[in-house]
Design brief:
4-stranded antiparallel β-sheet; protease; Umud Fragment, subunit A; hydrolase; 1 helix; transmembrane
């Protein structure tokens, strides 16, 4: 009786193993790139420069912001890009269509006085303003005249939605989670 001998070559096994390694490497680097992009564009770390957000933040405080999915709401602390290209941190007071008035240092939102326990100083009076569509009224927590260059100033005015980069998630110095209200 003649026996038939089958020889298997390791070439097909080696080929499959090499393909698996290549696909595994491609997936690994793809995940790394996605993670990098998510961290690069999804979140940012900013250092606060100045005193316009005192007492909530001091000069040099670190803030982490969510730049992906958010919709500004009353009281949120946000980062926006000003006309000179600088990132600025302020608090959202008014949303599109809201009416803002400052009288005797008190901020009125839609004819209701805001209870703001996070501010310092007293704001100058401002006549009634109605915010246009896609625009927000942002001001600093340090309300003393001249301490915060914000929406109260005619040079700044309301801030367009596309200029708002993100909302604060976390402050590291001092530690604050959320909007800091």
């Amino acid at each position: 009786m003649t026996s038939i001998r089958f020889e298997t070559t390791n070439k097909s096994v080696e080929s499959k193993s090499l393909k698996n390694e290549i696909w595994s490497s491609i997936r690994f680097f793809g995940i790394l790139i996605l993670l990098f992009l998510f961290l690069k564009f999804g979140f940012s770390i900013s250092t606060i420069s100045g005193y316009s957000m005192v007492p909530t933040f001091d000069d040099g405080s670190l803030v982490i912001t969510n730049n992906l999915i958010y919709e500004p709401e009353h009281g949120d602390i946000v980062i926006y890009t000003d006309s000179n290209g600088f990132n600025v941190i302020k608090r959202v007071i008014g949303l599109p269509g809201d009416q803002i008035l400052i009288s005797n240092g008190v901020v009125y939102l839609n004819n209701v006085a805001l209870e703001e326990n996070y501010t310092f100083g007293s704001a100058s009076d401002m006549s009634l303003q109605t915010l246009p569509a896609d625009s927000y009224f942002l001001i600093g927590d340090h309300r003393t005249p001249g301490e915060s260059f914000d929406s109260r100033s005619p040079e700044v005015g309301s801030i367009h939605r596309e200029d708002i980069k993100g909302e604060m998630l976390l402050a590291l110095n001092p530690f604050i989670l959320g909007s800091g209200r």
